[in-house]
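Final report, closing paragraph on structural work. Over the funding period we assembled a curated collection of sequence-structure pairs, and we close with a single example.
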Amino acid sequence: MPPRAQIDATVRDYASRGRECAYGNLRLMTRVIGSLYDEALRDVGLHAAQLQLLWAIVAVEPVELGELSSVTHTDPTTLSRTVEKLRKARLVDVRAGAADGRRKEVRMTALGRQRFAAAMPRWEAAQQKAAALLPLADVRALAREVRRGARNAS
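Its predicted structure, as stored:
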């Protein structure tokens, strides 16, 4: 273990650099922007993360859980928990896969489609509020680069 003086010097050197941290800045933005969307979606009984998952499902349904995990860059355990909550709320249906019964496929239910449609005007309002805080074209471009980098890292 390094001597205490070296530890103290390192702590002093980095103490003021926290605002440079990509992770910390992204977490801050996620909390602030996420609360805008959560508040807007409250009346339809959805959280922003749930809406994003429903969006991914409806875009490619029926979708196998493993593929959904890859598409959303969500670890399988977290994804399974969220899908189970959506299933219990009767927003999605989970069944054995058509090609391989051991795999699970997810699709929206009629109630899920109804809730998704009801959420869209509220999403639009949240999107406008988010645009007042962030340049959304830059956010989309950055997300595109991150997805590309994540694919290349795999």
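The chain has one domain: 20-153. The longest strand covers residues 92-96. We thank the funder for supporting this effort.
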